[in-house]
């Protein structure tokens, strides 16, 4: 399987080189040159597979023979053996029309573990096989940081630096990152927003000399391995519901800020998974919902919400979707992204907007609406949603039509956002692993939001 850049100016590379490159050297994002197709017959054969067995089959389509199958199986098995539920991503039925896909059973209680346990092990494998130096640089709006650190902490030959917006993540998210005292981990608390952190990361990776000098590797969803890993649970949910004959009109409602999780669903559908509607659920930072509704991609005023991991105005995976929206035309994508850089705005023509609205249905969830949804579902089903999942459930309630079934992706354990949940007078018992964090010392460095300040920290660390 060959991989190319969304901007068309990087020669074709293999899977492992694509993982190591992270952000393409021309500033674009890496995507597979061809999307493998999955037939109805294949889906039937996959129906009885465990999650790890299914992941092996999906990964094999994109990796082919570059990693021997036995090695890939070991990577997959090791990655998902760390999950607390044997199903890895179990489905929880709330009613006949709504299921919750619980993606939070990994080590850090967040959906990011599904991809980052695998990517951490994959980086270790590539480092050993190629004798490569792995210096990971990432930004987080909350969950990616802890999941990435957990995936590589203590691993020989790997160092990781994570940027997070200072005092703009939940307390549990902060503790999960900053209580780690391993020598190969550096936490930088950036004075600014997640968009500032993400911009710094993309600009440092775009500095090809700096990137190569310090052997920088990406752990954010700009890394294609993250997206491929996330496609698996769409297939898994579909296959579980196919056993109940509930897949005739099956929707997925996806809380999203960076467009990675829902792009994985879009990729699964392009592979042949018969998804009826992809419901794009945002919070009040609704640049993506406005794009689906109006065809205008333009950051608005930043809003701090009860779902902070979605407090994002510039979605890094949006460019991957543009590539397919514009018929895999790298030059067109380059022109659009340059226009966005110059003007801060992208407007697509009416014919393209029709295609967008065929691909996605958008819904923006107001701050209080997310908390009301948590309260309603707790009272009605004795089931506690975190505020991000509540956005997905609220969107599902609005969009799901008669004779449709929706799977809402549950992206985090509610214990990670207790500050928000307490606002609806709900008390919860923390898992022991989370409760223990409050008694640990923290290790982080607060820095300004400039490239130079981050570069100085990286040069000392790497």
From TrEMBL:
Describe the location of the Tryptophan synthase beta chain-like PALP domain by residue ranges. 89-402
Residue ranges of domain Threonine synthase N-terminal in the record: 3-80
Question: What keywords are assigned to this protein?
Answer: Amino-acid biosynthesis, Lyase, Pyridoxal phosphate, Threonine biosynthesis
Reactions the enzyme catalyzes: O-phospho-L-homoserine + H2O = L-threonine + phosphate
In which domain of life is the source organism classified?
A: Bacteria
Q: What is its EC number?
A: 4.2.3.1
Respond yes or no to whether keyword Amino-acid biosynthesis is given for this record.
yes
Give a GO molecular function annotation for the protein: pyridoxal phosphate binding
| PANTHER family, per database record | THREONINE SYNTHASE FAMILY MEMBER, THREONINE SYNTHASE-LIKE 2
Q: Sorted alphabetically, which NCBIfam families does this protein's record hold?
A: thrC
Per its database record, what is this protein's job? Catalyzes the gamma-elimination of phosphate from L-phosphohomoserine and the beta-addition of water to produce L-threonine.
Question: Which named protein is this?
Answer: Threonine synthase
Native source species: Paenibacillus psychroresistens
The top of its lineage is: Bacteria, Bacillati, Bacillota, Bacilli, Bacillales
